[in-house]
Every structure is written in C-alpha cells, then in structure tokens.
Amino acid sequence: MRIGITCYPTYGGSGAVATELGLELARRGHEVHFVSYASPFRLRGFAPRVTFHEVVTTDYPLFEHSPYALALAVKQHEVAQREKLEIMHVHYAIPHAATAWLAKQMLRPERDLKVVTTLHGTDITLVGQDPSYYTLTKFSIEQSDAVTAVSRYLRDETYRAFGCVDCDVRVISNFISPAEYHPPRDGSCRGALAPADHKILTHVSNFRPVKRVVDVVRVFASVCKAMPATLVLIGDGPERDAAEHEADRLGLGEDVRFLGKVDDVAELLRGSDLFLLPSETESFGLAALEAMACGVPVIASAVGGLPEVIAQGETGFLAPVGAVDAMAAEAAAILSDPARHARMRSAAARRALDFSAERIVPQYEALYRDVLNG
Ligand code: GMT
After folding, report:
1. What does the pLDDT look like over 299-321, one tens digit per residue?
2. Residues 242, 248, 252, 255: is their CA dihedral positive or negative?
3. What is the b/e burial string over 186-214, where b = at least 16 CB atoms within 10 angstroms of the residue's CB?
4. Residue 120 Cα, ligand 1 centroid: separation in angstroms?
5. pTM of model > 0.85
6. Is the pLDDT of residue 101 over 80?
7. Is the pLDDT of residue 276 over 80?
8. How is the chain split among helix, strand and coil, in percent rounded to 5?
9. How far is the CA of 355 from the centre of ligand 1 (A)?
10. With a 6 A CB cut-off, is 40 part of the ligand 1 pocket?
C-alpha cells in the first residue's frame, strides 16, 4: 500500500507512535510518506521505502500567525497526487484530520484518498473540547474514512464528548518494538547514571502540566528518605523550571538529574529500577509501556487508559491523581523487597509483549484493507 502519515514531529507520544508505525509499515513492504513541518524526532537516518516531505509556511505581513494548517493541506494533497497515495493516516486530530479532509476534497473526483485518523489523547480530552476547536474536531472525526483510538478509555471518551454519529472508533493500542525495548541483556548504563548503591527512578515526558512533574520530584523525595536513590528526568517542557525549583526546595541536590531531551530512551530505561508517571490524565501512557518493556515496573495515576496498560500490583502500582504519599510508600516498598521487585520486573516485560509491534501493526494493515475495500 502507499500510505501518507502526518503527525507532530516533536518530542511526544503521538509523534513517536506515528513514526514507529511508519517504519514498521515500510519494513513490511509498504511505501510510506511522512508529511509534517519537520522530520519526526524518531525518524533517524535513511530507511528503505520511507520519505519525508516538509511543509513550508510563508510569512506575509498580513498574517499575525502563519496558517500552517492550510500549507499542510496543500502539501498533503500534493504528496497524495504525486506519490499516488491510497491512504492518509493522520495522528492527533487537530488540525491533521481537518487538513486531510481538505486534501481529500481537492483530489476529487480524480481519486478517493482515504483518511484514517488516530486519536491520541488531548485532541479529545482537552484541546478538542475547547469551543475554538470543538465543531471542527467533531466534523473531521465524522468525515474520516476510519477512526482509531489508542485505548478503550479514549474511544469511550470520544463517544461521550463528541457523540459522533455513524462513527465507529476502533481501538488499536500503542505498541513497542521488542528489538528496541527489552530488558537488559548484558549490563546497562546504571553506572553512568547513579552511584552503585542507589536505586534509580526515572520519568520521561514532555514536561507539560498534565504530566505533574512536580509530583514526580515529591514522590522521589519521600523514597529518598527510605534508601539511597537517584531520580533521572528525561525530556523538557514548560514544567521543567517548576520541577527544578521543587528539587532545590527539597534539598535533593545531585540525586536529581535533569537530562533534557534524549531521542533514544531505551538504554536509560534499562538502567532504571522504577518508572514514575503520576499524570493528571493519560489516554494510554506510551512512556509507561516502554518502561515495562525494558523490565521496569511503573508507579502511575489510576487515570484514563493507564489501567489498560499497567496491571495493578503485578506490573506496577496505580493510585489516585496527586496521591504522592501512597505512590511514594508503594515505590519504597517495592524497591526494598528484592524478590517482589524481580517478580514485577519480569511481569512488566512479559505484559509489554502483549503490545508488540508484531501483534498491533497488522491491526492497522487490516484497517487499511477494510477502508480500501469500502
Ligand atoms: O494527547 C497528547 O497530549 C499528546 C500526545 C503526545 O503527542 O504526547 O500524548 C498522547 O498520546 C500518546 C500516544 O498515543 C499517549 O501515550 C499519551 O497517553 C497521550 N497523552 C495524554 O493523553 C495526556
């Protein structure tokens, strides 16, 4: 098949999933064309059957904001026409599902470009419900030839918030590649992250308020009282300053390490003992799945799609949003019981295989076939 993919190219779960999907599809023999304003951060180097098309916006004195969505629609149309795309698969509804709909209209009646929209999270739970975007989000979901959601929670939330008429939202979970995300085989980078006697707790995100990174620091501060430990924070974003101030306020010193954006987190995850994800909302929690695949149990909020990924007590621990004390107590209990920790490590890695690319990507291929067969 000839497939176009549009996503946000920046550090974030939807761009990561879209890129990994494109790469997997190309490995399976499909022709894949990424269309976005920059090359997606996980698209490293050359891959056979993968091409990136950059959307360029033009500044004009009249525009206070450059109309990126219009330039994107034009590029999606142009690429679909030149590369004879059959499917345009967009990730994150705003504005991608609307621009793909425009590209589809512009291609008519010459060809029928099928639009597949994957909903990822705040496009439904937050931004999509804002009055500035609501009607267009609803319209572009309803007009897509197929719609997928990354969890049952997100599918139900889409029906609840948008009451989409005639739209059948198919759940296709996020996935990991076990070749990349796997437990440590021979050694890990632990020694480079923390002193040998320290437990290592890790958090990866784009540090938006929804991730509650300050809670990450507070949970860690409590764990620190029970054992020597290091907190490794990977990523960057608006809440980094607040998290740094909290770490200073709590006097955590060199035990908290802010690494900034790192493209390849698997090696760092393999060096970790526990992953923290105390988010306000999380439609799936790809970061948690990646940690589990590396054999790292997860302490997280019991919200959104996280309970579909993390098995309570087996592969991690779920607590209400903001329950810092409960999360810290459980983290310390797990880390101070080596037998239980080892059991949870194995269970996490095993559970993650339920979400392997091998199992999930064929579900997208089947969906594309259904859409093309009308
Ligand atoms: O929806 C967002 O906030 C953006 C998106 C991203 O690009 O980071 O995150 C969402 O998509 C991920 C991939 O499907 C999910 O793993 C995240 O849980 C989800 N984030 C939220 O729901 C907050």
Report:
1. 999 999 999 999 999 999 999 99
2. positive
3. eebebeebbeeebbbbbbbbbbbebbbbb
4. 5
5. yes
6. yes
7. yes
8. 45, 20, 35
9. 16
10. no
CATH superfamily of 190-355: Glycogen Phosphorylase B; (3.40.50.2000)
Tokens for 370, please give them: 């259904």
Q: 2-175+356-372: which CATH topology?
A: Rossmann fold (3.40.50)
SS3 354: helix
- Determine the length of the chain: 374
Nearest CA to ligand 1 atom 23: 282
- Identity of the residue numbered 269: L
Cα–Cα distance for residue pair 347/159, rounded to 1 Å: 33
Q: Is 150 in the pocket of ligand 1 (CB under 6 A)?
A: yes
Q: Which amino acid is at 324?
A: V
The residue whose CB lies within 8 Å of the most ligand 1 atoms, and thus the one to mutate among 281, 284, 360, is 284
Contact predicate 360/255, CB 8 Å: no
User: Does ligand 1 have an atom closer than 6 angstroms to the CB of 210?
Assistant: yes
- Which token pair is 333? 């209990």
- Which residue spans of the chain are classified as CATH 3.40.50.2000? 2-175+356-372, 190-355
Calculate how far, in angstroms, residue 291's C-alpha sits from the geometric centre of ligand 1.
Answer: 16
